[in-house]
Amino acid sequence: MTGSPRIAFLASPAADAQAALARFTGRHGQCPPDEADILCTLGGDGFMLQTLHRHGALGKPVYGLKMGTVGFLMNHYQGREGTLPDLMARLEAAEPAVLRPLEMVAATESGATVGSLAYNEVSLLRQTRQAAHVSVELNGQVRLDELVCDGVMLATPAGSTAYNYSAHGPILPLGCSVVALTPIAAFRPRRWRGALLKADTVVRFRVLDPYKRPVSATADSHEVRDVVEVTIQESRDRTVTLLFDPEHNLEERILSEQFET
Question: According to its UniProt record, which residues of this chain constitute the active site (predicted)?
Answer without folding.
Answer: 45
